[in-house]
């Protein structure tokens, strides 16, 4: 593997992200009790002490929330021991941007590095030792969001939460895929003008990150996902989903929310659309939203193509323009120009 590829598969790539700035710095402190209080407010109450008795503790933390995700950068100025017991109500992904942390989670003990993140499930006991100056990117995911997402892909999990292997290895295909998505997410959120600032796009990205964990990381439902057989599909839920999409085009929709409305699993929904419509639910959603863009450009010669595209959830303007031309035989700007000439 080349050096550039090695860096790309590591948390090192996130070290210089512009996402964290003075505007979202939560604190820069040299007081153990105050640090513990602030960090507890974002995560949960925990025990914090220096590894070497008598040493003072300093720390800095950045915090921002995008959609349902809490994204944080936390760094201690000395080696510290952190004991939150169990997280109870949330999952926590911790990616060292440099240095390392010793993780004890359930039956697992390992050193977390920029190439081996920790993925902590709420039901497992946790204690950690962080190196001084070993900044970490910490992403909090509410357990209710994970439970909902898992139920849409595996309905039999309704009464249980997935318990992940706490070692999230970026050298594996699943780990690398999640890190690639996360890099795109962080870069996008850093840009005020990026389409991800729109609710439609944000919802899709959150869904993609959780799906990447469910199918790319190891957990106690992995075998059920792999072995789940498609039950016989029936057109009723295809029609129900089509109607729901048409009535909620303006809302943030994900494949999971559509499956919930239809009362079937994500795989069954995909199979129904493939077998009876020769398409997918999300392709139908894109097609119907494309129609809305086309109609708006026909109605309003002064409309901004970019604003209308973003309004209907099309984040990649180049791809949008290509798909639009393939469907309507002209670029969206030509549709608007035609309307202007008619006026």
UniProtKB/TrEMBL annotation:
Residue span(s) of domain HTH araC/xylS-type: 239-338
Signal sequence, start to end: none
Pfam families to which the protein is assigned, alphabetical: AraC_binding_2, HTH_18
Record-linked InterPro entries: AraC-bd_2, AraC_XylS_family_regulators, Homeodomain-like_sf, HTH_AraC, HTH_AraC-typ_CS
Family matches, as Gene3D superfamilies: Homeodomain-like
GO MF term set: DNA-binding transcription factor activity; sequence-specific DNA binding
Keywords on record: DNA-binding, Transcription, Transcription regulation
Name of this protein: AraC family transcriptional regulator
